[in-house]
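Read as amino acids, tokens; as here:

___
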Amino acid sequence: MANTVPCAVVRLSVTASASTTRHDFPPDFHLWLRHLQLPRSLFLYTRRHVEGAYAQGGRSLSKILDGSNGFLLLIIYNRFKEDVALLKKLGVDAYRFSLSWSRILPGGRLNGKEGVKFYNDLIDLLLAQGIEPCVTIFFFDVPQCLEDEQDFAEYEVCFFEFGDRVKFWITQNEPITFTKNGYVDGSFPPGHGSTSARPSAKNGDIDVLVESIILVMVDVQGGKIGITNMSVWQDPYSDAQADIEAASSSRFFGWFVAPIVTGDYPPVMRDRVGNRLPKFTPNEVKTVKGSYDFLGINYYTTNWAAYKPTPPAVRDGVPIGEQAGSDWLYVVPYGIRNLLVHAKNKYNNPIIYLTENGVDEKNDKSATITTALKDDHRIKYHQEHLAFLKEAMDLGVCLKGYFPWSPFDNYEWTEGYTVRFGMYYVDYVNGYTRYPKRSAIWYMNFLNKNVLPRPKKQIKEIEDDNASAKRKRGH
């Protein structure tokens, strides 16, 4: 795969303001939606999760370290037709989801006919509605039976079953998250390592994982393939040289990007990690270098970087941005422009897709649905980030698409149901009914280039339903 195709950039004068519109972006810039369709498995105990149906569709049971399961979830498995219809109404032209390996390979064997049928039905329905399916092959979902046998590398089944229709592939999502949390500090399943553990020459798990992530790139049937990395932009905490260097070295997505661009790990990693870092053979360098069509970046927030163990988000009592629902998420829109320009300059101006970007709020179980639908902060978040995306494009960044996180409220990693990222409110108590938040109406207007009225009748019905008392939300 080559990533040297010239990218035309439309240069317009734009300021980072809420006035950015769909017309400010070129016709070939895609505004999509990203949603995780993933079952619970050993490698997730509280994670982004919407597919549910943990015991249906030929799916083998997974071991969950906290004992929970996917029963009280969005059950997209049983209502995906409804959700695709909602995506169509929004006006998106593509939808990103990931695969459940315990559904495709239940018991570790290629006999998951029901699971394969589910994905075929979903893909066919998306295409029938004019929505391109964008598939993430691996999103931390390793069934325990395959982990035990150490044979979870049968990725080609994806291309055999779905490659005739799926033309946009992502091999891995956020390998840094899976590697660090699962194999270094042990905070996430599978729990290898501990909070005091660090990679060493004897720590084969992490070495094998990193190499497999990079070497998994394969040829596909006329499609595009890339990898998605999470990155927090880092600003220096002070003018001290140590803090400036800390900010530079902490932009760690080079760990997984540099090898596929240059054929080796970043020099700063070689200098600091030394012999603990695997060395690529000449054949591996030839295989890996340039083996992608695009880079995916997940961006949510920015921190200050200091020469200290934990990057701070607060300086002199002042946070770097407004805190959202999650304790790690501060709203810093300019960080996405800086990050994209950094990637352009450092990695030969690759084609980039912003594969996740969003903001959450606390799940207030005492709030009415009417109140919960008023998410003006989410509209502002996306408006401001889109404006800085446009600035980055004007600076020459070859950005080709944007996936907001997320169309629907869902199960959010270790935070469970305590926060909500969705443009659609999901009633976890009463049948998982979806209600459009203000942000959904705004995004619909943005994509369709016209102004659509809010669904007053539906909102009125909700208000009537809540007139006598506040209904508890949650699970």
Q: What stands out?
A: The first helix runs from residue 76 to 90. The mean pLDDT is 75. The chain has one domain: 22-465. Residues 22-465 form a domain with the TIM Barrel fold (CATH 3.20.20.80).
